[in-house]
Amino acid sequence: xxxxxxxxxxxxxxxxxxxxxxxxxxxxxxxxxxxxxxxxxxxxxxxxxxxxxxxxxxxxxxxxxxxxxxxxxxxxxxxxxxxxxxxxxxxxxxxxxxxxxxxxxxxxxxxxxxxxxxxxxxxxxxxxxxxxxxxxxxxxxxxxxxxxxxxxxxxxxxxxxxxxxxxxxxxxxxxxxxxxxxxxxxxxxxxxxxxxxxxxxxxxxxxxxxxxxxxxxxxxxxxxxxxxxxxxxxxxxx
Length: 238
Hints:
Rossmann fold, alpha/beta, about 45% helix, DNA polymerase, domain 1, 2 domains, 6 strands, about 10% strand
């Protein structure tokens, strides 16, 4: 990646700054166990994902929409005969998910410290439920690093254009760092920005794309978030 004079560096939150998807997958596994009397785990998971996709335009991304989709899955998989106690347990699973501890990924404070000292303006640009993401950011103790927090309903090209317009930055002055190529990198590259892809070991299937091979001097794939420090070593225009 060539290193222009970035004005702003954006960070995704879930599975970039802190652990997220493993908690959702564990909750889904426990849902499958609760509904085992109605269908095999594979069938429950397949139906849950289909319902999540149908509900995205209604509920958006995040834990609350996931909880409602789990309840709907329980009703449909049982032909509306699911026991009330099971529904109560599904709701409890959702509350446990929302209240999961915030576990920072390795070396995140070190990276944010370094970039802040280099003079970069750091922001968070993440999808999800407003209250849930605000709660996680507060628990993370990372808010002090960020000049702007944007909790987005989606992360398509137009969404990033609106974000950059709000903060007064051109696309060629913006670098986005995240674990999802589909949401964090692809649309930013498409509007003329820069991207560093930091894959996480597990990815929600909605975020999976066929290929992440990109030949561009505005894109870099790294193994670890700590690699960002080496890429931007010595600061701007180095």
